[in-house]
Amino acid sequence: MGLAKTRGDGLGFASVRRIVVKLGSAVIAPGGRLDEEAIVRLAGDMATSDREVVVVSSGAVASGFRALGLEAMPRSIVQKQAAAAVGQQRLMAAWAGAFQKHGRVVAQVLLTADDLDDRARHLNARRTLEALLAAGVIPIINENDSVSYAEIKLGDNDRLSALVAGLVGADLLVILSSIDGVYEQGDGKRVIAWIENIGAARRHIRAGTSEVGTGGMATKLDAAEIAVEAGAHVVIARGAQDRVLARILGGEALGTHFPAAGRGVGARRRWIGRSTRVRGTIVVDEGCGSALTERGASLLPSGVVGVEGEFGEGACVAVRYKDGRVLARGLTSYSSGEIRRLRGKKSADIERTLGYCYREEIIHRDDLVLTAGSKGERS
Ligand code: GLU
Question: What is the Cα–Cα distance from 34 to 251, expressed in whole angstroms?
Answer without folding.
Answer: 30
